[in-house]
Amino acid sequence: MIRINRALAIGVCLLLMLAIAGSFLVPGFASVQNARSILLLAAFLGLASLGQTMVALLGGLDLSIPYVIGAANILLPAMINAGLPAPIAITMILLLGLMAGAINGALSFRLQGQALIMSLGVGFTIVGATQIYTALGSATGGNVFAPIPSWLTNFAAFNGRTFGLPIPPVVVIWFLVIVAMTFVVKRTWFGRSLYALGGSRNAAARLMINEFRLWVAVHAISGIMSAMTGVLLLGFSGGGYVAVGDPYLFTTVAAVVIGGTSLLGGAGGYGATVIGALVLTVLTSLLVGVGLSIPAQQAIVGLLLIPMVALYARMPHIRSQV
Predict the structure, then answer these.
(1) Counting Cβ atoms within 10 Å, is residue 208 exposed (0-12), middle (13-18) or buried (19+)?
(2) Which is nearest to 101 in space by CA: 129, 128, 57, 63?
(3) Are 161 and 154 in contact (CB under 8 A)?
(4) What element of type H or E holds 6?
């Protein structure tokens, strides 16, 4: 508990420093409108990073996340154009995300020596097959447009409202996911099994934890959360774009690392990733506000990661795993 709090304290301090710097350097940075914008963008990253956090707790990484996001983002408007009601289409896409994640988990478990590449291969397969389907009868498969339901737009829009309050519903959804994930990790056998398996496979086997089922379940959760993020991003952008998930290949891992979750497994948690997602979003908003180009932003985020990784690597719970 003390180790996790230390990582959280570092992340919170970094977040506060960035917020203070932004309020001095960028006019309007401390405004309510900018805070709402930051929370909205952080919610997308936070939802996409949930699965990455759980996989990292087992000592792995899921590189299929950006491709499932992109596939869901173009599949939903294609299904709406085919005549399916939006709620049914969304339900089907979430189930497909769940199935894709479960398949990814089963394959990567059987070939754990190449699990990273396996998840990348599954991601390529998913997004490629989806583009083939959406390109049928169309000149382009990477962009798909359809009338987006107003309620879905409200869910993910900057000016979206929740029960009349000026809070985008996706932010509320993210908050509910945080509460649910905290309960699952702290109060259930499933949550405790994540840490047991990530910390020591031998100890987990003695506790009768089924490693295969847990590995598949975690990847299935990652798949459905990625599909959900792709659906919500459609409400945000108003049109399907297959590459919409590409930034999440790096940022989901970065949010996990900045939050202090060990990529070796067994230490960290989703609360830490939430802080990491907020740090990345506030930093990006600050860098955009001061007028830096995208390459310059990438360089600074990379420079932030290096000392953070070095700092966390010196913590006893991570040193003991190396």
Answers:
(1) exposed
(2) 63
(3) yes
(4) helix 2-25
User: 3-state DSSP call for residue 140?
Assistant: coil
Q: Would you place residue 318 in the very low, low, confident or very high pLDDT band (cuts 50, 70, 90)? A: low
DSSP alpha helix (H) spans, 136-200: 150-156, 169-187, 189-199
165: helix, coil or strand?
strand
pTM for this model (two decimals): 0.91
Q: Which residue has tokens 């990073």?
A: 49
**Residue 20, number of CB atoms within 10 A of its CB:** 12
DSSP letters of 243-275?
Answer: GGGTHHHHHHHHHHHHHT--TTSSS--HHHHHH
> Torsions phi, psi of 175, nearest 5?
-60, -45
Helix (H, G, I), strand (E, B) or coil at 162: strand
CA–chain centroid gap for 69, Å, is 10
Residue-wise pLDDT tens digits, 219-266: 999 999 999 999 999 999 988 899 999 999 989 998 998 888 888 888
